[in-house]
Amino acid sequence: MGAVRYRASRSSSKKKSRSHISKRSRKKGLGKWLLIWAGSALLMAGVWFGYNWWKQQEKAKPELEAKGKPSLAMKTLTLFFSDEQAEFLVGEPRDVTDPGSSSGLAQAVLQELIRGPKGSLQPTIPEGTRVLAPVSCSQGTCTVDLSQEFVSRHPGGTSGEMMTVYSIVESLCANVPGVKRVQFLVEGKPRETLAGHLFIGAPVASEPGLLRREAS
Questions:
Q1: pLDDT for residue 6
Q2: CB proximity list for 45: less than 8 A, separation 6 or greater
Q3: Tens digit of each residue's pLDDT (9 = 90 or more) over 42-59
Q4: Contact predicate 133/188, CB 8 Å
Q5: Which of 120, 152, 167, 202 is deepest in the core (most CB within 10 A)?
Q6: What residues contact residue 40 under an 8 Å CB cut-off, 6+ apart?
């Protein structure tokens, strides 16, 4: 009887011991999973906050860049192109970035004339014409150096030559302060006429009688 009771006691003790170990294991396992869950939650929160911070920085970047750059001043030019009958030059407004100097402004005028009109007026500069050197303006005279296309691609005729030459002269005189005349060079050299009619060997002065301010 004593042996039976001893074995029963040992068996009961083992069961209690296993139960106690099992509870401790479950507690340890639960604690481990809680730590893993908490770590994952913190990681996800960090990623979320980091992503939102990055988005805010990217959104603010253009504004910061814009604040760091000086705003470009604009200037409205009056460019003169031919009417349909090649009788008068008519003004067309054109907004450009202000280059801040007389020579730069004269260069912008020429480039815009070469691009041609945006409305119903007729172009005056032969296609393919290029400005070969920076425009110099001194003592009321601007000197422009144009490529050979200015001559070789010109259709000719007295009216056509007048529209071409005076579109440049009047546009420069109207937009560049102090300019009253234009000296024409072709490939760096003076030329007697544009296409056999209009003399351009000396500086050409403004001719206001050719201007009509608005298209009819």
A1: 46
A2: none
A3: 777 777 766 777 777 776
A4: yes
A5: 167
A6: none
Amino acid at 35: L
* Residue pair 119/110 in contact by the 8 Å Cβ criterion: no
Residue 28 binned pLDDT confidence (cut-offs 50, 70, 90): low
CA atoms within 13 A on the CB side of 25: 6
Q: Can you read off the two tokens belonging to residue 54?
A: 């990055």
Angle (nearest 5°) at CA 202 between 199 and 208: 70
Which of these ranges, 49-53, 180-184, 212-216, has the smallest mean pLDDT? 212-216
- Alpha-carbon distance 112 to 142, whole Å? 16
The Cβ of residue 153 has, within 10 Å, a number of other Cβ atoms equal to 14
Q: Is the pLDDT of residue 39 over 90?
A: no
DSSP characters over the chain: -HHHHHHHHHHHHHHHHHHHHHHHHHHHHHHHHHHHHHHHHHHHHHHHHHHHHHHHHHHHHHHHHHHHSPPPPEEEEEEEEE-TTSS-EEEEEEEEE--SSHHHHHHHHHHHHHH--SSSSBP-SPTT--B-S--EEETTEEEEEE-THHHHT----HHHHHHHHHHHHHHHHHHSTT--EEEEEETTEE-SBSSSSSB-SSPEEP-GGGEESS--
